Amino acid sequence: MILFISDLHLSPRSPGATALFLRFLEGRARQAEALYILGDLFEVWVGDDVSDAYTTRIAAALCAASEAGLNIYLMHGNRDFAIGEQFAGAAGVSLLPDPYELVLPEWSFVLSHGDALCLDDHAYMAYRAKVRDPEWQRKMRAKPRFLRALLGRYIRWRSARRKRDQAYVYADLQGAATDDFIRDHGYCTFIHGHTHRPATHDHLVDGIHVERWVLADWHEDRGECLVWDGQALKREALTFEN
């Protein structure tokens, strides 16, 4: 059994989602062979060396699940793109490139955070190109830790303000680019997050029907994982009651 999750946006300001994730790691996740986290595990990440009690607690919980036999794979999202090998080592997780082709004996998937295909959001794509540039990241990591911590606070503040705007809607993936992506990856079943629009889409690409599964974002009282049982994918709700 393999589990897929994304967009938890964990921070000290999300105690409910944090508690739910820790409960998930201690229970449901350990029934699986592998867990794939497809980006935005954290609300913000400005360097492995900017650590605190909160991130240490999350790393320890991930490491405990890994030591119990769960294989954990982590992909960068648009919020935690600066996670590096130092955190990965402490957490016992393996970092994945985006996209990543997961080839199993029964089926094949292509995994991504999904933001690279939101081409119609021109402002975001310009921002993404900047922050994903290795030279920009090098300069960012070279800044004093207190400056990067301030940057993290600003990003959280901007995010909170945006969420208060009820008119805000996350951009969706561009249709033509998504079909090209599916074609380039051999018509594999496509799993991603980022958009906060959980759904299952059926793409017809070159006469081939290909499913695209969009993972749900997590909230203070609920989350979701996508389960591959060796035969089919299904969504599983995660709450404090189950």
Instruction: For the record, give the distance between the C-alpha atoms at the N and C termini, rounded to a whole number.
Output: 19 Å
Q: What order do the SSEs take from the amino end to the carboxyl end, as H and E?
A: EHEHEHEEEHHHHEEEEE
User: Helix count, per DSSP?
Assistant: 7
Mean pLDDT: 90
Biggest β-sheet description:
6 strands, mixed
Name the strands of the widest sheet in spatial order: 4-3-2-1-10-11
CATH H-tier superfamily: Metallo-dependent phosphatases
Return the CATH class: Alpha Beta
What is CATH's topology name? Answer: Purple Acid Phosphatase, chain A, domain 2
- Uncertain runs are none
Helix content: 25-40%
Going by helix content, strand content and strand pairing, the class is: alpha/beta
Jot down its keywords.
242 residues, alpha/beta, Purple Acid Phosphatase, chain A, domain 2, 6-stranded mixed sheet, 34% helix
